[in-house]
Amino acid sequence: MGESGTVHEMLTMMANNGWRITDQRKTLAHIFASHDGYLSPKDVYDQMCVHYPGVSFDTVYRNLRMLSEMGILEQFYFMEGGLKFKANCLSHHHHHLICIQCEKTLTFEYCPMDKLSELPGDYKIVNHRFEIYGICGSCQAGATT
Amino acid sequence: MGESGTVHEMLTMMANNGWRITDQRKTLAHIFASHDGYLSPKDVYDQMCVHYPGVSFDTVYRNLRMLSEMGILEQFYFMEGGLKFKANCLSHHHHHLICIQCEKTLTFEYCPMDKLSELPGDYKIVNHRFEIYGICGSCQAGATT
DNA sequence: CTTCCTGCAAATCGTTTGCATCAGT
DNA sequence: ACTGATGCAAACGATTTGCAGGAAG
After folding, report:
1. Residue B137: pLDDT above 60?
2. How far apart are CA A31 and CA A6, in angstroms?
3. What angle (nearest 5°) sits at the alpha carbon of residue A37, between those of residues A33 and A43?
4. Which residue of chain A is at minimal alpha-carbon distance from B74?
5. What are the distances in angstroms from CA A4 to CA A14, A56, B4, B6?
6. What pLDDT score does B27 carry?
């Protein structure tokens, strides 16, 4: 639901940045719009093959990088699972609650930066990262698979 | 200052875990005890070569991995700089303020988890990460090198 | 029709492994 | 002495690049 809107948003953004809208990129947009967790390049490649046979790995990489640089996708490096990508929420700031087992990700609005008053040193703050890791309901229920 | 204590602490910890205390591991402990930012495997290798010529890259990796598994070092993957290691503070919980230019790292005590009341889903929380990125005083002063 | 995108194959980078030798206990 | 640690070289996986043909504007 609402996915087609997001796909269109992504494609428009690509076009505005001067990128051509190819079948492959449409498929890519589709995949990320309809999946709200993180996907590894391999995951993406596998999904691509289903909808659009004959893709090559390097093109998947190229497009993932392009989409990340454009801010459409957000990268994250899982210590165990390596680099993964996820559709970026472009509208508002939030943080993530991530299941360390299945990687299901929820967002929440609380931001610690609001509360933070004094910091050591005289850093000019440019960014921050706040993530909470846990085990989601379903993973707690289903035993160690 | 206080470095020798930390080195000794690390070495004792290795010994208690059944690892032999080799020259190389002593040097490794020394390097991390006297540097409080993150170091990449390459950084460590370069430092090692200075104090202990003839090291090989794979042994550096092996020891870094070993030290991480033992909890003496803490790993972190920088999106730009790849995997890096840092001496783990074993005594108390804190978070980091990291310079995105020189990677100089300060610690601070504020922890957002104390204030956090309600979260979505029914995750069993096991861990969290909170880091603030900025530009430190010296890097603000010295222009874009 | 021009330029960008794609697939292929090969190169590259960071990291890991097998093995014979060497050093710590 | 015994066993684990090291250096070497080679394997490995993930990601990137150069190039020729094909498709989007």
Report:
1. yes
2. 11
3. 85
4. A79
5. 15, 25, 61, 57
6. 95
Answer whether A131's CB lies under 8 Å from A95's CB: yes
Please give the residue of chain A at the shortest CA–CA distance from B119: A108
**Protein footprint on strand D: which nucleotides are under 7 Å from a CB?**
4-10, 14-18, 23-25
**What's this model's pTM, rounded to 2 decimal places?**
0.79
Give the domains, in start order, of chain A with CATH numbers: 3-87 (1.10.10.10), 95-144 (3.30.1490.190)
Measured at the CA of A89, the angle between CA B75 and CA A8, to 5 degrees, comes to 135
Tell me the two tokens of residue B143.
């222009």
Per-residue confidence (pLDDT) for residue B4, from 0 to 100: 61
Burial of B88 by CB count in 10 Å (0-12 exposed, 13-18 middle, 19+ buried)? Answer: middle
Task: Compute the C-alpha angle B85/B91/B97, nearest 5°.
Answer: 50
**Which residue's structure tokens are 């596998």?**
A46
Q: For position A3, what pLDDT does the model report?
A: 65
Rounded distance, CA A131 to CA B127, Å?
9
Q: Is the pLDDT of residue B65 over 70?
A: yes
